[in-house]
Amino acid sequence: MSCGNIWGSKIIDEGSAIRFYTSKPALERNEAISLLGQCANNYAHWMTELLPKLLMVDASSRYDGWPLLIDASAVRSFEECIRLFNTKRRKIIVVDSWAPVILTKVVHVSAPAYEPYRPDRIKKQEACNYINIFSPEVMKMLRDEAHRVVKAESVVPYRRVYLDRGKAGNLRSITNREQVNGVLRDYKFETIEPAKLSISEQINVCREAECIIAPIGAALINMIFATEGCKVFALVGKYDYGNYYYYSNLAGVLGCEFYYVLGEPVTAGGQDMHFDYTVDIEGLRASLEAGL
């Protein structure tokens, strides 16, 4: 096709545009294990999709001595976690965003959990047409390894724990947070903000819990560290287009007893699964009476 004049114009949707990043020099290595993936600096994605791959590779001595490729954002966010679970003390190769990597050999492990990549989903209201799937064997492997590498310093069994997101100013804020805290105090729950704890402390808190309550979000992923049979209550808004499979299916493969406590959404615009919401206090009390 010969070049010619271009007539007219077209507005391109910024969210759908494809950009190419080719100016960065390539990182060249002979061999490596890839722990690269989408949203690597997100706690839920890291704990369920990426970190378990390290344990799967470590189960074989064939790749002993191979370094790890890890996204720079994950290294910054989860330095302690990487150090804790990198029991074979593999070298870490930090990969910046959009940096090309050239390898002679690479180990790429199939994802033990998967959340489809949809960059527009926070902005659009539409039904989710997929069901989240987790590998029971690998999620339990992660729990067992966490219990092995973290020493239980002071075991306090049968704890009732509320994992509070705090005043993070994030998506899905609870508007009546103080009322929720008051009800949970009546039922002898400890209020803990995971963001203020080390990963080792978070593991120990959850391994000792007989019951965990948390809003949906990163904190709730810590049920991975709970023992089988732990009761888990998830606080969430009642959404027409919400996907409620993620946390319930994760709880199912872990052997946890799982409940949703639905609240009333109070904001509009964008994807409704991320709206702020008001917890139904009487509904919360009724759920605790029935489930505990």
Automatic annotation (TrEMBL):
Keywords: Glycoprotein, Glycosyltransferase, Transferase. It is an enzyme of class 2 (transferase). Residues 43-232 form the Glycosyltransferase 61 catalytic domain. GO terms for molecular function: glycosyltransferase activity. The keyword Glycoprotein applies. InterPro entries: Glyco_transf_61_cat (IPR049625), Glycosyltransferase_61 (IPR007657). Its EC number is 2.4.-.-. It comes from the Bacteria. The keyword Glycoprotein applies. This is Glycosyltransferase family 61 protein.
